[in-house]
Structures are given as structure tokens and as C-alpha cells.
Amino acid sequence: MRGTMVIYRRELAGLFLAPLGWMLLGLALFANGLLLYLVLGYTGGDLGAALRGALGGGTLFWALLVFLPPLLAMRMMAEESRSGTLEYLLTAPVSDAAVVVGKFLAATTFLGVIWSVVPLYGLLFQLQGSPPDWGAVFATWLGAVLTSGLFVSLGLLAATSTSTPLLAAFLAFAACLGWILVPTFGGQLLNTADALVGSSGFGELVIQTLRSSLRAMDVLRHFHFSWRMGVIDTAEVVFFCSWPCLFLFATVRMLEGRRWRV
Amino acid sequence: MSRSQSVGKISRLGILAQVVLAVFLALAAVLFVNWLAARPGVRQRYDLTATGSASVDASTRGVLVALPGVVHIDVFFRPEPAPFERVAQAVQSRTSELLEVMQLQAGDQLKITRHNMLDAVGIERRKQELRIRGLENCLIVSHLPSQPAAADPDLPPGVPAREVVPLFGRYGLASLDPGNPDRNAYRAPAIMSFDGEKAILAALLKVTQGKRPLVCFSRGHGEGDAFELQGDPAGFGRLETILTDDGFRTERWSGTENGELPTDCSVLAVLEPKTPFTEEEQEFIEAFMQRGGRLVLAAPSDPGQLESSGLDLFFESYGVEITPGIVCEPKRDAATTAPVVGGPQVAYVQALPDDMGVHPITGPYKDAARPLRVPAAHGLRVARQPSLGLAQAIVRSPRRPPGSWLDEPPFNWVPDDHENQQPQDLVLVWSRGFAAASGVQQTEAVGGDGSVRENRIVFLGSGAMLQDSILADPRMGSFNEPFARNLFNWAADREYRVSISSKDPAVVRAPVETTAFVVQVALWYLPIGCFVIGVLVGLLRRRGGPDRGLGGEGMGV
Fold it and tell me: Is it true that the peptide bond before B402 is cis, omega within 30 degrees of 0?
């Protein structure tokens, strides 16, 4: 635990005491502000819609989630691997799991700071006399942080597979994008297949199974129909905690595997 | 290849196999945990929204968990043309969320299919299955019972019962303010109320109920017409429409013309008769009650008409006394807040949730903290409890100061000393086991089909609360409409169908100046602040400032 906290502090300091972190933060806040502005204009000042829009309601949010975790993962894993500091870290008196979890927590915290700007908007609205629905804002913010954790863990796993930073970022980006798009496009493909197969027993069973599997993996659906609605759903908490655990576990295994490659 | 190289390769393969196995085991564990967490008994949802907009009503939950078979909901949503595209999108989005919540409650009993409107072949196929021609922006709720006997007898065999829920309109997912397109007085279209839950619930009940219960409206005694939709404010045309929309069949009944009440009649509504029933008609009603019939009895407001109708004696035969006086509530002057008395406007009571009893009819009012409008009501009193049954008041006149009083005829609309100034019962519900023709009270009735029967009566101190003057008035109707629906549903043994209040769109709109300020902060101040800090950090790092604290040694790694 101590090792995790040490790595966490080191990575967080690395993010916030470097110009790149602040530039990323500035860009993300600008994107969030733009989204708030657009949704407020589109809905005629609907506060709830604007705050939800800035947290998961718009494409921009998901675009940030697809781009930022790979960049952070690239910086935390591949960049360190290329420069040799990762090997230094791995030989330090901390476990591989502590290294991975510390990096994961730091990246998630960084994204959490970005999303925390939305409750800040809410606070500003409240101070101006238009209080938002705080329960809904809190649930959506929590969901955004947990979703960020999911994408960060996926990005770390993808970035650990190579020591080339650009390739790592690309792999992480592809993994995050795939996690979002496969259920959507897969569902459409299954609709087409369903129309071709018709109501034949086995084919329909296979399609139904695939459809329910894709549905179970659909992160947009998981986010939209729980957190974004202002609901804390235990099944969604488990979903957004268990998958990062799996990805982190796999990342630790991959890091351990590095020792055997040398 | 040397021996040591070979061993190294085998070891690595072994380690790789171990890693892969461990990851697969972990994957299996994750899938299992997710499956377990999604089980209905394990899964818990906590709605944190202020208005409860992410949950469904308790009555909706009750219906969803007790669906008699698989119900399909086909979603045919497409964008609306301008200027309605935004409101349509908002309603579609909220409906999707609502359907998701409903599916969680209903489990496998509710199949929701979201159709891609570009898939013309698929849509055409589904339209043929549902036997529909045109298609608008709507949901289609359909159900085909597994047992043919449970199907609606009005439908051909094999055809599912279906109900279309449009996007907007009286029975739609939301009511819409179309706005004003005039440039000089432009107002954008807006959602007035989101009624998705009510509309979908009504559709679910309609397609699953099979044969619809029959409500007969008595006529021939000066009652307001229930089948007249235009003109007569003392009529009950709107009530009839509400009941039809809620899945009842309705008919007129006159004892002198039609003879006995139809055998499939569930509820007889006697609303403000002005002349008494003949002995033969009373026998018909008695025979109906002995079959386990239900009554809704509403007294005319005029004391003279009440007396001439003989309804007071009819009430008394069930142990309920009715006063000739009218219940009044002082109105307050808007400027001085002093009580205003001395006008007929005081014969108008607004019953608040505190004035209502706990009952399926009034429960939704208490839950939604809604008032009920009771104009020109007589006071009611339970003089005698039915043996092996219960009579109770569910709506009373207000107790809050300055209080209500019973204005006695001749009316002067002023609380005189001799007049009763205690709260009065305005609506009573009465239920008991079946009363046999011999007069012997039984605990319960066994009908010809072997089912247990029970008599239920709703006594209304005022029929005016169901008249078109209230229900057809857009400002007043929304207050009394759920009450009208609830009382007939209770009378017809359909407590599960109690109405729910429409959920408003829960929109908090920020004023333009507030929006401008927050947008300025969000769009400019915060990002620019971050860039400035980033530049400062960069400059400090160049000078070797904060960099010293970073990395290995400083952090103890």
C-alpha cells in the first residue's frame, strides 16, 4: 500500500509539475466549457441537461475519454519504458502491482480533476441563484470518474505491450475506441444477420447470445442508463470496478513477463 | 540448440501458459461477478435525483413484476422536423431511459426492440406482424397471451393486442407546448409535462388485461349525460373518455328501458340523479349488488334535488348519512389575506393531502402532494358500519385555520353560530362481503364461477367533482382526473391501476446573465488559468525549480 501511494504521488507530481499536464488540463477544460456552452444554448438554458452534457452526454466527453487515457498511459508506461526509467522502477523496492495501481490511480485522479470542473460549474450556478440537482450531478461525476478508470486501465494494458510510445498510444487509443464502438456496430451487424438468418432456431440463439454479450459490454449503455440518469446502481458499480481490476491484473502480469523476456 | 537454451524456452512457455491461464481465470471471475451483480435480487438502484425522475412509481413496479406474459415494446423513433427536433429528442431520450428502468423491473417479461428507421425491410416485417399500416414517431406495446382464453375476445385469434403510444398528445409520452413561431413574439416549443410512465403503463395494462370491465352510467333520472362531449358543463363526457382511455367499456343503463343490469357490468355509476329510482330499478340494483356489484354514487349539490332524488334514503340504506348543507371553506383575500365569506365561491373546498386518508384512491395524491378540488359538496357521515365490512372517509374538508363549515339552507355562505364548524367527510368508501337476498350477511360471496365477491361503494358528497366543468377544464382537470380514474379502478378491483402523477420535465433554466457568467468562467477563465500555470511550471522547470523534487530520490523510490 505504501509503495502504491509513493508511486501515486510520484506520478501525480509528474503530471501536475509538468507543463504538459496543465496544457492537457487546459484543453480538456476548454472542451468541457465548450460543451457546456453548446448544450446551454441548444436547450435554452436547461441546467440539468447542460451539466449532464458536460459529463457523458456529448460526443466530446467520449472523445476526451478515448484520447486522454492513451496519452497518459503512453506517458506513464511506454515513455518510461523507452527512457529506461520503468526498469529502474521495477527494480525498486515496490511490487509490480504497486507500480501499476499507483499509475492507474494517478491517471484516474488527473481525469477526475478534469471532470470535477462540472460540479464547479454547478456551484457557480448555485451561487448565481440557479441550484442544480446535486444528487444527479454527483452520480454523474462519480460515473465519469469510474468510466475514466476503466479506460485508463485499458490504456495501461495496451501501452504495456510495447515500449514504442507512439505505438503504445495508438494501441491504447484503438482499445478504448473499440470498447466503445464494437457494441454499437456489432449490434447493427447482428441486426443484419438476424434479418438474413430469420427465425431459425440455432442461428437465432447464437445471435441472441452475441447480442446480449455485446449489450453487457456496452459501456455507453452502462453509463447512460445509470450514472447519467442520476442513479447509483450496484451492478454498474461492479461493472466499472471489476473490469479495471481485470485489466490491471493483466497489466501486472505483462510487466512481470518483461523480466522473462530479458 | 543447446540444452540450457531448450530449458529456457520451455520455462518461458510454461510461464506464458500460467499467465494466460491466470488472466482467463480472472476474466471468468469478472464475468461471473458481473452476472451475479445484475441478478434482480442482488441488484440495488439508488435514485439520487431530486425529483425521482430516474425511478418508476410503486404502482408501475407492481404492474411490471406481475405482467402475465411477455410484452413487446417496439420503439419507432425518428427525428422530428424543425422546430420540434429538440423537444422530440429530449422526449425520446427520456423515454429510452424510462424503458431501461422498466426493463430492469420486469426482467424477461418485457422485450424492448429499438428499430433502426433506415431498416425499411425490418420495419415492414414488424408492421406486418403487428398488423399495422401507418407508422409515426411512437412506441407500440403488444402482447399475445399464451392461453387463447386470456385474449381480448374482440381481436381475431393469433393477433396480438397492441397499443400505440405517440410521442406527443393527450395520450402520448409528453404534452407539448408548440410555442409561437411569430418573430415578434417568438417562443420555442417546449415540453409541458413528461407523461411517459403513465402512457406506457396504460398501454401495458390495456394489452394485458384481456376483456375490459364495463361501467354502466344510470340515466333517466336527470343525470348529466356521460356521452355528451360538447357543451354541457354539468355532463360527464370527459369522465367517460377518461374511463375508456383507461381500459373500461362504458354503456348507458336505464332500468325502465334495459331491464336488469348487464351480467358483465362491473360498476354502476349513479351520478347526480334528480328523481328517485322506481322500485323495479331498485330491485335491479339490489340484484346487481347481490352478484357482487360495485357502485359509484354521487349526490346532486342542490339540497332540493337531493331530497327529490331519494338518494339520501339510498345512502342511508348503506348506513351513510348525507347532510343537506354544503361544505364551505373561507377563501382568503389575495391582498389582505383575510378570510372572504359571503359569496358562493366559498362553497368550494380544496382538499390537501393532509385532508385525505390512506387508501388506493387517495394514495397517489398523498405521494405527489397534490390537492383535490371538491365543489359544492354535502357532508357525509358513517352512521353504521357494514357488518363484516368497513366504511371510511378518504377525503375530508380542511382542518387548517380558519377551518371549514357546513352552510345550512337557506344558504348565506357565512359561518353562523348554529352551523357545524367541524371538518366534514366529503368522500367515503364502503366495502363488505356479499349480502344475500335473505338479508343474511356473509363474509364473502362466491359467484357462479366460484370466485370470491365483494361489494364496494364510493359515496361522493359532490358529483360536481367529476363533471365536465372540472374535468374538462385544462386548469382544473389535472387535479381531479387521477381521482376519477382511481375511484373507478378501485371500485372495479383494479387497485394496481391507480394513477400516477405526470412527471414534469424537471427543467431548471438558468437566466441568461447567469449562463453568460458561468460560460465565461468555463470557456475562458479556467482553461486560460491552466495554460498560464502550465507556462509558469515550464519556466520554473527550466530554471531547475520544481524538477528537483521530482523523480526517484525525492519520492523515496
Answer: yes
Interchain pair A19, B537: CB under 8 A = yes
Give the number of other CB atoms < 10 A from CB of residue B513: 10
> Structure pTM?
0.68
Cα→Cα distances B314→A88, A133, B308, B455, Å: 96, 53, 12, 15
Identify the helix (H) or strand (E) that includes residue B71.
strand B71-76
On the question of a cis peptide bond just before residue B344, with omega within 30 degrees of 0, the verdict is: no
Q: Are B255 and B334 members of one domain?
A: yes
- Which of A36, A47, A235 minimises the CB distance to B519? A36
At A195, list the grid cell: 434479418
Is B449 a member of any domain? Answer: yes
Closest Cα in chain B to A123: B518
Beta carbons within 10 angstroms of residue A120's beta carbon? 14
SS3 B165: strand
| Residues B508, A46: C-beta atoms closer than 8 Å | yes
Cell numbers 393486442: residue = B161
Rounded distance between C-alpha atoms, residue B498 and residue B478, angstroms: 15
Question: Chunked in runs of 10, what are the mean pLDDT values of chain B (557 residues)?
Answer: 60 81 91 89 86 79 84 90 86 89 86 82 81 81 76 69 85 84 81 84 82 89 80 84 86 90 92 91 91 91 88 91 89 71 78 87 80 90 87 88 82 83 91 56 43 81 90 78 89 68 58 81 90 89 57 38
A138–B47 C-beta distance less than 8 A: no
Distance from CA of A48 to the nearest CA of B (A): 7
Domain-ending residue, one of B182, B205, B228? B205
- Asked whether residue B513 is domain-assigned, the answer is no
Kindly state whether residue B465 falls inside one of the protein's structural domains: yes
Helices (H), chain A: 2-16, 19-43, 47-52, 59-73, 79-83, 85-91, 96-115, 117-127, 134-160, 165-197, 201-217, 219-224, 234-261
Domains: count for chain B:
2
Q: Do A19 and B119 touch (CB under 8 A)?
A: no
Q: Is A23 helix (H, G, I), strand (E, B) or coil?
A: helix
Q: Shortest CB distance from A29 goes to which of B50, B527, B541?
A: B527
> Is A45 in contact with B45 (Cβ distance < 8 A)?
no
Q: Which residues pair with B429 in a beta bridge?
A: B392, B458
The residue count of chain A comes to 262
Say how far apart CA B272 and CA B302 lie, in whole Å.
Answer: 10
Determine contact, residues A183/A214, Cβ cutoff 8 Å.
Answer: yes
